[in-house]
Amino acid sequence: MRFLKLSALLVAAGVALWSAGSQAAEGAVEPKQISWPQNGFFGTFDRTALQRGFKVYQEVCHGCHAAKYLTFRSLADLGFNEDEVKALAAAYTVTDGPDENGEMFERPARPSDTMPSPFPNPQAARAANGGAYPPDLSLMTKARHDGDNYVFSILTGYEDPPAGEELAAGQYYNHYFPGHRIGMPPPLNPDQVTYDDGTSATVDQMASDVTQFLSWLAEPKMEERKQTGIKVMLFLIVLSVLLYFYKRKVWADVH
Prior knowledge:
By secondary structure, the protein is mainly alpha-helical.
């Protein structure tokens, strides 16, 4: 009897979870599928795109979204030289201290500092965004399923709502956002940034560049991981061949 009750509870729990998952997925659309240079076994980051993507994040996204794991010195991995990294850091102010009087003070950021948040606390962030809290972008491409494609699709998925579709105040229609109602205004507009390399700043271009930057930010050691994996695979292949011939030599007389 107890077994039947337990089974019934498990079935009920499973149905409840399935129902909740179905409701959460209602209105979700499969994101656009893009061939990213960093994907695949031999994929690598496009440094030029990463620098452009950082510019988009810096000038557009950072107004609302923090990146608490981004240190200025790590920008050297994007191809910025030491002087450029120092200049990028010095453009921001961080709180430090206490000083000899026990007071906190502000100073220009150094390469060892993390990029400061646009808001001093979550309450201020919500107050500035109509009650919605802009998520930190450090791990965004890892926190969402099919993260790179998800981010790109959201950034390029804003549309006019279909006929008869009404949006509440502060809501926007996004084809790829679950439920299609999103509180974030369209963040990208044509020519919103000026690229140093002269690349045309279309919405798709900026969305692609900042997506690649966020992909690097979420896993900056990805290339090293893949290189290590390739070396390990080559080592195992060579070792397997050597062991095979050693086995044949050892067991030659037996056979």
